[in-house]
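Review form for a predicted model. The reviewer records the input and the model, then writes brief findings.
Reviewer: anonymous (R2)
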Amino acid sequence: MSSHQIERVQKIIANRGYVSRRKAEKLISEHRVKVNGEVVQDLGTKVSVDAQIMVDNHLVEPAAQKYYFIFYKPRNVVSTMYDPKHRKTIADYFKAVPTRVYPVGRLDYDVSGLILVTNDGEMANFVMHPRYEFIKTYQALVNGKTSKQTVNQLLKGVTIDDDNYFTKALTARIVNYNPDKNESIIELSIAEGRKHHVKKMLAAAEIDLKKLMRTKIENIELDQLKPGEYRSLTPYEVRSFYGTYKAVRRKTDS
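Model under review:
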């Protein structure tokens, strides 16, 4: 990488896979970051991408290798690398990986399914940014027999949250109905990500949710993974996903 290229300090820290950009900004605000021996005072500070950066006097070095994983998060696992309540976290499943990795975004404690785990700070920051919309697909196990009219309501749109935010599913369909258990499975996809977004949409459509699972992000699927398992993304999946988000960035930046 050329030493003539300059970036904001928090972006370089994130790109080196140390912490997310938001966490890096917090570290800078707390005056815990030094560049070439000088404490960084301003979030707008730009430096060479190969500058010496230290956090709490520990060197922040670029990750030698980028890792990209699909993880099937089980229910009742916290989608962070540390939990002050000492519940099971994603970190418990990635002890064999020889570098610090972290989840891209969050899945609720009681929601299972696909979450990306990486040490690529640039991609993680981009995917988590609320400005950029990635298509995420979910399957909901719900009580009762769901009607087509109810599913169509998700497509037409519902209002959620105290600010009456209007939102609609990109796709929604009934996958299955089990008459013995009187349960339905609904599949829906969204390109937004407010807190508890899908749960609130289902509640607004008066759908009685039992369990929720994320099955897909853009072109990346769980495939044959079981809860608690992970696999590396293939080079094709990484290229394809990068292509998706660069296209999204061009569209939103224009």
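Findings: The mean pLDDT is 89.
Further findings: The first strand starts at residue 6 and ends at 8.
Recommendation: see findings above.
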